[in-house]
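Complex record, two chains
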Amino acid sequence: MKRLRLKFFNRKSKYRPYTTLPWSLSRKRIYIMPTRHGWRFLLVLVAMLIGSINYKNNLGFLLTFLLSSMALVSILHTYRNLSRVQILSAAAAPVFAGGRAVFKFLVRAENYDRAAVFFKLVNGGEAHKDLAAGRDNWIDISANTEARGIFNPGDLRITSRYPFGLFYAWSRLHLDLHCVVFPKPIRSPFEPIPDLSSSLDEGRKNGPGVDDFQGLKSYQPGDSLQHISWKAFSRGQGLFTKQFIGQTGASVILDWGVMREANTERKLSWLCDMVIKANRLNLTYGLRLPGKTIDPDRGDAHRQKCLKALAYHGN
Amino acid sequence: MKKDSEHITILLITGVLLFAILPHISRLPFWIPVWCLSFWAYAFLAMQYQWYWPGRKIRLILTISGVLAGLRTYGFAIGLDAGVGVLSILLGLKILEIHSHRDKMVTLFLAYFVIITNLFYSSSLVMTFYMFVSVLLSTTVIIHINHPQGKLTGNLSLSSVIMIQALPIMIVLFFLFPRIQGSLFALPKKTTGRTGFSDRLTPGSISNLVRSSDIAFRAEFKDAVPDPDKLYWRGIVFWRFTGKSWVRGKDVPRQVLPLAPNNEVEYVLTLEPHDAKWLFALDFPVSAPEQAVMSADHTLIANKKIKERIRYTIRSDTVPPVEPLKFWETAAMDLPEQGNPMARKLAREWSSRADTPEKVIESALNFFRKNNFVYTLNPPLLGQNSVDEFLFEYRKGYCEHYASAFAFLMRSANIPARIVGGYLGGEINPYADYMIIRQSDAHAWVEVWLPSKGWTRVDPTSAVAPERIEQGMTAALPQEDINQIFLSHRLGPIYAYWKKIGFGWDALNNYWNQWVMGYSYLRQKALLAKLGINIESWKGPVTVILIAVCLIVVFVLLSYLWITKKPVRKKETVQNYYDVFCEKLERIGLSRRPEQGPMDYARMITSARQDLNRNVSEVINLYIALRYGRKGDEETLKHFKILVKHFDPPKQAA
């Protein structure tokens, strides 16, 4: 009794423990209820029963009991359709705030195929799929993100109405799902400060400079007017900025402290934009946030690290 | 693509509806099936060719006008017929408004409902099969609606599996669900024109009945079947002659005391509904069954019209009782004032010459025998003086003509006479021990009252066609009559087989009727009593519910085990054959080490035995392709199997 009450309490509680993956759906976590059609069908059966009783029609009884028995047996089939479905992994690639996070679930079904299994995230979308037995089934469910930080799409609800649509079986998994949401990049004046701490030897890397012409890139507000390719513009090709490579040897620091802006989120968005630009320009850059400093480096891994730091800021 | 699958779904739903309505088609007024089919066809064509799709308003107008027209057709009477008609009209339109998943589900539920309405009209074995098939198809479509990507064959097999799993539970519910006596509420019962005896005997009324091979009743004798000349099944006694037809007098008193039987026969009679009150029994019933009373003329009158198949156990005495002529029985001598003067004259002549009634009877029978009377199902139409015309002009008739004329002659000769209507004979079903009595066995005979014997049966037909009594109607009638009426007789030798199949089918029907269709409150009570449960005490129902629940749980568990069992792993044929191959090599001393892979093993063999190189490398290469490569095709597998089978390494190198 105590256990039962505890269980009930846990179900309602916000602080229930996460279900750890891989997880196989079983009797303990699959619930079954009639659907609206199920209740409607019950009405039809009752009408049939009353008719059969009244007319003393044995064939009518036979049909009524056949249909009720089939509905009863269909509960088993609905349950079977979810039973032992395994969720092996779940992951989502980081997105920028306002983008769609796509959660990818790896699902396997043992022994037999499952038909029309619905997956729904409480704070997200829905997807349904037939699960082939013994194969890897990928389920993609997308969810809209709003704020920077860590997005939690809520519980995963797995349901099935197969085969008759009279009953639905469901299981709700409280998974530790999260998606890192980077700040939404907002165009900002590119304001790096030179990294004074870096030695000359370390800085022998290519970065934007003034020495050699490298190519054209489409103009972005904030690019120096001196570098605009007026030749291209006069040919009517639009605004382009000439790019130069300089072996400056020095790296830059994107510093929270130097930005003249009071709003934290805006600052983070600007920094995010800078990180993206710095990465695109192949700069060696570091990030300095209150309480966290990332040493200058380059490459995609570094970019992710910096963006993550921005996403996690304040948490 | 999606649109196509939607079309298929709607087509399937329409198909299921059509299948459910089909048995009704002959019963529905002509325009309703036409209405349904034309809307369904239109809906499908409109989907296919993007035609105009009726809007909400038009559909509403169609619905209202359809329902009103339907109600008008049925004369605004509420009943089963009208209900089915209106339901069909609505289903005709329903296809036009299927938009959502919900609409589809509701339409399928309605299809189930149409199936049950069929059962109120017919509960034959064929209908039962039809019901199961419709349920199977409807269920397949329900699965399709809930899983449109699935294959239809898969849906069909799943719905069959579910149906098979449901059958035991259905049987438990059928037999244990508490039945009640009486109805919940009274509804007008439909009356359908059923064949059977009417309470009026006119020339032609029996010969019309005889054309039907419908079953009138079945009888199971407890002991031996009586001789053919004793198989007179009594139904109605006609007392009054109106000049044209014979009718049953209304003032026949009740027989209070049962007969004291001399030669008793006991049997169970299952009577098909004939929408009249009389029950049939072998001459002469000893006492009335529960639901009927016995009249003084030994006929049995039920309390209600027989609208459902009933079954009663009854005993009869084949020896007629000797009774005095009661005062009200003088009605058996009444004749209309006028009509048929020649017959009256003839009868008076006989009676003046004879000194006993027996002699008059004999003269009458001789008259039939000697004057070229013909026994036929196609007698000429008779006019005002029907007896005279029959006796002196046409001399062609069926049993009712003979009985009518004979009774008339007897009454004219002042001998009390009455006509008895019923059946004569019957066929024993060789596959089950019972007798089938059909409408074609209908017969009419006469009873006359003799001072020494009381009421005595005289069958004037026997004077004309003695075969009728011994061998049945088909032996007595001329061949052209039979061929004309009974098409099956034209088949010649095939007819014998046809008849056998007919008997088997009838036996099946009979069991079905008795064990399933005849199940009722009383039967359930008897069944439970056998199990030691008294349904009338409070414990009874509780026990029944417990038993039912336990049985259902057991069957549900069994079904659960069935559907969740692990599929049997496919025999790895490739591996099996490889094992055989290795065994063969082992026999010549070249066994594979457990850790040895196929390539390594092949190298080992070829280094030891150069002569096996070709065969072994071929087998090994195929094995590798089949086992580790992209699935080898059927041809490769076949090749591999043949090679392994024929592989026979000699002990010593050649």
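Note: The first helix of chain B runs from residue 2 to 21.
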